[in-house]
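Just wondering, does anyone understand these tokens?
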Amino acid sequence: MIQAAEKPAAEKPAEETARNPEDDLPVYLYKQGNNYEAQRFFGSHLTEQGGEKGVLFRVWAPHATAVSVVGDFNSWKPGSHPMKKTDGASIWELFIPGMKEFDIYKYCVTTRAGDLVFKADPYALHAETRPSNGSKVYDLSGFGWTDNEWMDAQKAKDSINGPMNIYEMHAGSWKMKQDGENYIPYNYSELADLLIPYLTDMGYTHVELLPIMEYPFDGSWGYQVSGYFAPTSRYGTPKDLMAFVDKMHRAGIGVIMDWVPAHFPKDQFGLYMFDGEPCYEDPNPRRGEHKEWGTMVFNFGMKEVQSFLISSALYWLEQYHIDGLRVDAVASMLYLDYNRRDGEWEQNVNGGKENLEAIEFLRKLNTAILTRHPEKYMIAEESTAWPNVTKPAADGGLGFNFKWNMGWMNDMLSYMKTDPLFRSYNHNKVTFSFFYAFSENFVLPISHDEVVHGKCSLINKMPGEYDDKFANLRTFYGYMMAHPGKKLLFMGQEFGQFNEWYEARPLDWMLLDYDKHKELQNYVKTLNQFYKNTPAFWQVDYSWEGFQWIVPDDYQQSIVAFLRKDAAGKQILIVCNFTPILREGYIMGAPVSGSYKEILNSDDAAFGGSGQHHNKNIRSKKVPMHGFDQSITLTLPPLSTLYFEVPAKKETKPKTTRTTKAAAEKGEEKTTAKKTTTRKTAAAGEKKTTTRRTTKSKVEKGAPAKETKAEKAEKEAKAEKKPAAKRTRKPKAEKAAEE
């Protein structure tokens, strides 16, 4: 019946609408892959034509023989509102008078095979809430932003050399309302009101949201996207999301969101086979599908797809004031053989496994965004050793400005899960990251992926009994915060949630009624505040100038010690003891002479530790060690991380060589603390004896008389008329002073 209704439109050639010259440029740019605001042209837009208010629809469907708009307004009848080609090739258009905001619609596409497929609008700004999946007309205008101060400040900020401590969270399950036995998520605006006091108190600088672009299946957490321009309606309207971001910015908190350009799901209403044939996906079956994920890979070489994706990225940054995008699954984009067996993929034109089109797309994406908005963050989740991810595209890099350090994450979680008795055999996992720590602009992530699907929560990864788990975790957090790179921690791990994260229920906040969990949260809060207030931990994050090893190789005792430095040279000493053994009298090199003050101890009782072992101000000794002239002796509590304030370097005055003439003219000579010498001024010629002068009785008894220093000084004074020769060596007093 449906086919019969649409068949007449499919059988005759599609009509074209009258060409509007103003439409030529966006269409031209779109087909060149350079329309970075494609959503302004495509999708549904409230407008007025011929004096009538209504909605203008445009959609790209290059293989379709007919397209019509269907919805509640026409009882979803195919063909009743047929669209016409506006460019003579692939773009369909229709103005429908009388339609209004929130009206639901889809496109009914007639394929070349004669089938009808009902598709959501790829450029929809709003959508129905699951299980329904229709698109909604929505007016984005009219929201009153109040975050101008934040936005202006970001443009002047150094995003690379500033503090970034990210709280990663799932918007639907951080906290939830309870309706009987069911949990209901807060909407975006309500969530902001709950979240801001918490993040402010905890000291986080940014929040990162798991994908909030519209998606069909809750269990995908948003990583299988069906609406690249629509915030998920699970948590409210687009303007509710704007309110969330606006409130965050006014509270001084940046907002980052996950963005997924690597792949999309195979749901029939979405992008998959949009007009009956590969359209958004790569048409090559050996490149166009991730079978393990059940998703399709974008055709990154297709110009229209490039315009679609780059427009989506800029849309979130500009329309919603998002501060940065964490780009998901970059590795799957870069490699043709990613998660594919032999025979399931084919080489590129050069005989390699790199996806050349995806590489060029990423460079184009990052160049477009960071040229417009150099203050924004483009963060790559790239899990391999692909080189120059955070180098500019013009220099052969991918053009991101940050990259997740997945290698560090894997090594450290593996190390921390190891029984401390065997950590000495795995010491390289603690130190290996420093071989490449400054090759990219890294973010250190402990993300949602590490606390789901049988991987255990973070605290349950820690070995030992109950108290040992907390001690291990405190040690790890202290090390992580001091390690070069920005920071990211997934929600719930800051207070030691034992259960794995599950998207359908809120975090186990009741755990904060127990001392250990409350104390761990207090420790993370203290670390966060220390990080934010200590430039040495973030100001020179990506250069050896901001880091220096002291003890990298004490694998037998599982101890590391290093320095972090800020741009002014101020230093913090970090010492980590990864074993449950008290180390008393631990001697290590010290970079500067003076007093070292313990400023943070993870074993403090306030953090749930024993509180038994603290270091009072430690004076350095002139005993060379670890390549330094000085050393200090510390007490290291079991399973602990300690921070020490390093004394400032003393400025030394340049030494000068004095002549006997100058000494005679001034009539004085400095003495050492060990000897008291006589002084005779050149003017008075008076003679004073020292307390260690040779006694008269010895002279009278015929003993050979020694010439005293006073007598020597007298001779020198009498010889002042003669030119004084420059000494070839320094006076003894000067030597003693230097010693």
